[in-house]
Amino acid sequence: MSITHKKTEFPQSTRADVLQNPVFVGIEQAILEQRIPPGMRLAENDLGDVYGVSRTIVRAGLQALSQAHLVTLRPNRGASVANPSPREAREVFEARELLEPRSAREAALNAKPKDIADLRLHALAEHEAMQENASGRALRLSGLFHVKIAEIANQKTIAEFIESLVSRSSLIIALYWTKSSTRCDEGCHNALIDAIERHDADEAEDLMRSHLVDIHSALSFGVADKEHKTLKDMLGIDLSN
Ligand SMILES: [Zn+2]
């Protein structure tokens, strides 16, 4: 017996739509800030109440979260926060360790002054998010830094793979990270920008490889259970007003 996926239930959205969608923005932030745990069911009615939006908007938000690998959608069972296994987490980082050093090498060979200025601005935004303790924003920005390097490398297909792996890594890091220090160390990103600016391909490749190995080796796969709370409690929204 085959399972019929009713694609029309979860409409496709553009990137701009997604960033306007309060369900996407709110749940992404809550996951990356570890306010809701892996596997938690995300009931459409609850999300509609929490964000005061229609079912169509809830479904569009959930579809976009699923495309970002932050939420799992199952026919007839609805949505839940993705729960990447340790094996999946390792595979994601192994794939990044294969692809990204090569991508950093190409970026060093291709980079124009405008690309370097763009990377430096981005690193500044990451720094600000960390200073403000905005952990979800910092995590998202540090992932985007890696996507930008892949784009500068101008290898479109590989950049698409990297973007998808980075998105999955954000949840993995949010779940399994153990160090108290920042996730993507600021020093590593700045050193990478310096190597790319000097067009030092060997150095950029080595720095990216060791940076990813550092992150991978700081993951720990024993996760404490979160205390039992309702979705509405975890999202921290006061429904009384
Ligand atoms: Zn990084």
UniProtKB/TrEMBL annotation:
<dbReference type="GO" id="GO:0003677">
    <property type="term" value="F:DNA binding"/>
</dbReference>
<dbReference type="InterPro" id="IPR036390">
    <property type="entry name" value="WH_DNA-bd_sf"/>
</dbReference>
<dbReference type="InterPro" id="IPR036388">
    <property type="entry name" value="WH-like_DNA-bd_sf"/>
</dbReference>
<dbReference type="Pfam" id="PF00392">
    <property type="entry name" value="GntR"/>
</dbReference>
<keyword id="KW-0238">DNA-binding</keyword>
<dbReference type="GO" id="GO:0003700">
    <property type="term" value="F:DNA-binding transcription factor activity"/>
</dbReference>
<keyword id="KW-0804">Transcription</keyword>
<keyword id="KW-0805">Transcription regulation</keyword>
<dbReference type="InterPro" id="IPR000524">
    <property type="entry name" value="Tscrpt_reg_HTH_GntR"/>
</dbReference>
<dbReference type="InterPro" id="IPR008920">
    <property type="entry name" value="TF_FadR/GntR_C"/>
</dbReference>
<protein>
    <submittedName>
        <fullName>DNA-binding transcriptional regulator, GntR family</fullName>
    </submittedName>
</protein>
<dbReference type="Pfam" id="PF07729">
    <property type="entry name" value="FCD"/>
</dbReference>
<feature type="domain" description="HTH gntR-type">
    <location>
        <begin position="17"/>
        <end position="84"/>
    </location>
</feature>
<dbReference type="InterPro" id="IPR011711">
    <property type="entry name" value="GntR_C"/>
</dbReference>
